[in-house]
Specification:
Radius of gyration: 23 Å
Organism: Pacificispira spongiicola
Number of strands: 17
Domain Rieske: 56-165
Number of helices: 9
CATH class of the largest domain: Alpha Beta
Strand content: 15-25%
Pfam families: Rieske, Ring_hydroxyl_A
Protein name: Aromatic ring-hydroxylating dioxygenase subunit alpha
CATH topology of the largest domain: Naphthalene 1,2-dioxygenase Alpha Subunit, Chain A, domain 1
Mean pLDDT: 94
Bound molecules: FE2/S2 (inorganic) cluster, fe (ii) ion
Largest sheet: 7 strands, antiparallel
InterPro entries: Rieske_2Fe-2S, Rieske_2Fe-2S_sf, Ring_hydroxy_dOase_asu_C_dom, Rng_hydr_dOase-A
CATH superfamily of the largest domain: Naphthalene 1,2-dioxygenase Alpha Subunit, Chain A, domain 1
Order of helices and strands: EHEEEEEEEEEEEHHHHHEEEEHHEH
Low-confidence stretches: none
């Protein structure tokens, strides 16, 4: 991979001296190669090294709270079945029958009517623990042993109500997948929340294209005018105070354009800025003032944490240039029972922002197809993006 060479021309903005104490990049850094965003062989390599090894967030556990609930998911080319047993335990399997490989569950979600998972093809029956209970043959060969044909299991962990799976043989420590430096969610009651609304979209972009976009705010003023009104610092194309090389000059201003937080009078990410309820009880004053915190577990999810609700944004790759986004809005049940609860106040705003991001990601994807685009260049504000791309590099041996 060739490095981007520094040019001799003057930068259009101010030039960094190298003495600034800030979070931004102070040297030219190349992006990942353009071809890694669409090459089918590279996509397979990333599936193998990343999506088939790391912990992946699938859904909030409350979406399958009752025994015998099931949900199915597609991760790359792999289909996964999650089932909650009579014992309350969630288990995960490849959605593949051990007889001749048919899909076991066609539906996206539902509840088993009996105690068995039955293959729709020749009707082999499995327990919710994955054991083969019965075949459909008139008789079985003497050397046929049902114990030899359980469903293929995958690792499942339900951590504070968040359901993660790992398709690798040996699962790493789940907590190691929680991005260091991402804001913590220990003060949010995530296990007590339920899903009030779900939104899905299949985007025509590589999974990294969406993450790249998530990791910078250079695009914010032109792509997200409404969001920049609510979060004024985004209007300056940065997401944190220390992204500005001269942040010390305005550190005492208290102005959200410089120090972050929501605009004057706003409490949460809603269409009018008014929170749905008083802040969750355990939040610190700083967490309340921040307006939004992000919990991140690459490569599958970020959770936007607000004072009154949370929103998980989960990404799964479906193809080199196809990525599914599924978003869950999470509320305390009592919030949704309030007479003045207005779901559209929160969903409309975030859907607008995510549609804008999806459209920007699709534009980005299209342009990277140019045969001249071997790689791009990162600007100082894109330091989170550099971290994300280094994370990808480490796992894919670049
Ligand atoms: S493939 Fe499932 S029973 Fe035959
Ligand atoms: Fe954005």
């Amino acid at each position: 991979m060739s490095a981007v060479r520094p040019g001799t021309g003057k930068a259009s903005g101010k030039t960094l001296t190298g003495d600034e104490d800030f979070d931004g990049l102070d040297r030219v850094e190349p992006t990942l190669p353009g071809s890694t965003y669409y090459d089918p062989a590279w996509y397979e390599h990333e599936l193998d090294r990343i999506f088939y090894r790391e912990w992946l967030y699938l859904c909030h556990g409350s979406t399958m709270a009752k025994p015998r609930s099931f949900r199915t998911f597609k991760i790359g080319s792999q289909r996964i079945l999650l089932v909650r047993g009579e014992d309350g335990q969630l288990r995960g399997f490849h959605n593949t029958c051990r007889h001749r490989g048919s899909i076991l569950c066609k539906e996206a979600q539902g509840r088993l009517t009996g105690k068995a998972i039955r293959c729709p093809y020749h009707q082999w029956a499995y327990s919710m623990e994955g054991d083969l209970l019965a075949t459909s043959s008139l008789a079985e060969a003497a050397d046929f042993d049902k114990a030899d044909f359980p469903l293929y299991p995958v690792h499942v962990q339900e951590w504070r109500g968040l359901v993660f799976v790992c398709l690798g043989d040996d699962a790493p420590d789940l907590r190691d997948s929680f991005e260091r430096g991402s804001d913590r969610i220990e003060h949010w009651p995530v296990e007590d929340l339920v899903v009030g609304y779900t939104w899905r979209k299949v985007m025509k972009c590589n999974w990294k294209t969406f993450w790249d976009n998530f990791n910078e705010c250079l695009h914010c003023p032109n792509i997200h005018p409404e969001l920049c009104d609510l979060v004024p610092i985004y209007g300056r194309r940065i997401s944190g105070q220390r992204d500005d090389p001269h942040w010390q000059d305005t550190a005492e201003s208290g102005d959200p354009r410089f120090v972050g937080g929501l605009k004057e009078g706003a409490q949460s990410w809603t269409s009018d800025g008014v929170a749905l309820r008083e802040p969750f009880p355990n939040l610190t004053p700083e967490e309340i003032a921040r307006g939004q915190s992000y919990f991140i577990s690459a490569p599958s999810v970020f959770i936007a944490c607000h004072v009154d609700y949370m929103r998980s944004v989960r990404l799964l790759p479906l193809g080199p240039e196809e990525t599914e986004i599924e978003v869950e809005w999470l509320f305390l049940p009592e919030t949704m029972e309030r007479p003045d609860f207005d779901l559209s106040k929160v969903t409309d705003f975030a859907i607008l922002v995510m549609q804008q991001d999806a459209e920007a990601s699709e534009l980005n994807q299209e342009g990277m197809r140019s045969r001249r685009f071997t790689e791009g260049v990162l600007m100082p504000e894109e330091h989170w993006l550099k971290r994300f791309q280094d994370w990808v590099r480490e796992r894919t041996d670049q």
